[in-house]
Design a protein that fits this description.
By secondary structure, the chain is an alpha+beta fold. The protein has one domain: VSR Endonuclease (Endonuclease, Chain A), CATH 3.40.960. Helix content is 47%, strand content 11%. A four-stranded mixed beta sheet has the order 1-2-3-4, with helices on both faces. A hairpin with a 4-residue loop joins strand 2 and strand 3 (46-51). The radius of gyration is 19 Å and the shape is globular.
């Protein structure tokens, strides 16, 4: 398992090259966010995870099969990975981030363009929805602070 790398994988490079060619700019493996997302797009408040089907337990995928030897170990490991992924996405959602997961099998040559175009459409949709509402990062914080100031003034 030491030979398995988590950064700059082939599926991740495919997504990054497509996004860059379409004019999207991003950061890689942001270490201040839970789960260190593969691609972070601050302008869109979006984190993109490019997951391997085996390592993250992609149900219903041909690439996800539990090995026939040491099955207890692998079932526990993949279950822990899935639980950790779920918790990290919940934390990101609470922080106001959108999370997109792209599976390795969705980037196979026959499905690749459909997946990448859908990703581009989703990012544009997120941007338009957030900005049409006047969404600003930390807007909720400012509203809560204003409410607190008003409450403090009423108490005095």
């Amino acid at each position: 398992m030491a030979a398995i790398h988590s950064k700059n994988t082939k599926p991740e490079l495919i997504v990054r090259k497509y996004l860059f060619a379409k004019g999207f700019r991003y950061r890689l493996n942001h270490n201040r966010l839970p789960g260190h997302p593969d691609i972070v797009m601050k302008k869109y408040r979006t984190c993109i995870f490019v997951n391997g089907c085996f390592w993250h337990g992609h149900e219903g995928c041909k690439a996800f099969r539990i090995p026939k030897t040491n099955t207890d170990f692998w079932e526990n490991k993949i279950a822990r990975n899935k639980q950790r992924d779920h918790q990290q996405r919940l934390q990101l959602a609470k922080m106001g981030w959108h999370c997109i997961t792209i599976w390795e099998c969705e980037l196979k040559p026959r499905n690749r363009m459909q997946t990448l175009v859908a990703l581009e459409y989703t990012l544009n949709h997120i941007f338009l929805c957030d900005h049409s509402k006047g969404y600003a990062p930390f807007q909720e914080y400012h509203e809560m602070a204003a409410d607190q100031r008003q409450t403090d003034e009423n108490v005095e």
